[in-house]
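Quarterly update from the structural biology core.
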Amino acid sequence: MNVLEWGFVAAVLTATTPVLLAALGGALCAQAGVFNIALEGQMLWGAFAAVVGSHYSGNAWVGVGLALVSTAVFSAILAVGSPRWAADPIILAIGINLLAVGLTGYGIRVLFDVSGTFSPDGLQGLDRMSFLSDVPVLGTVLGRQSPLVLLAILLALGLAFWVNRSATGLRLRGVGEHPEAAGSLGVDVQKYRTTVVLAAGGLCGLAGAQLSLGNVTVFTENMTAGRGWIAVAAVMLAANRPAWVLAACLGFGAAEAFGFRLQGVGAPQQLADAAPYIVTLVVLVATRLRWLRRTREVAV
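Predicted structure, tokenized:
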């Protein structure tokens, strides 16, 4: 088993992209003061919508567009309920996660007359960046990836710059850290939070589309398999900063890719599948310990 090769880097990027797109949405929500744990359900809905759009149109990019728009609409439950009606975002998010499981399970039976897995012949997946195939290193790393992989990396870097360097990004941080002060300066706190939660829903839609039409070409019930919760852990580890979210997600992606390599050398599938979740648990414990240490330092 060799992980010191460009092919392993490509596998890491493939595993990272869905988690990264969802985590960027979660980080933006956290910057605006909304703790969004609905990433799992929103990503699952995005994966389902992408397959529906691709199957009925015969074009994978129609599926991506449907996933983006419909997941943003789906996230309106949280976008309207929490900032405008002062509902508890945790309870709303739990409801969204449960609703997504039910709707996608019902939808696959009604629309496709199957249960479990939908993988028809001719289902269009996302195109590959094959024009990079002849470029040294880049061809190996990105040549067989969908454009959403490159888009996710660029979004992470762009959002890091926007949050820290632009006027609107700084206002967003103000809305999250000191909403009363931001409101007294004329910033519409509710508008910022509603817009950001809807945008985060769109990012989760892209995450689901990459999962069902980029990483594979199939929809399976509950196919997100905890990736949304891993994205929540990445947001907590990175303290809501998009650049560090990228770094955290690469770590989770490496754990998942390493798990697949373990299967290749005969390791039990259950052990390989558990690798990213073990990393997630370690991260959550480390985050909690870091929070306790800072709390004690402030108290002293």
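The chain has 13 helices and two strands.
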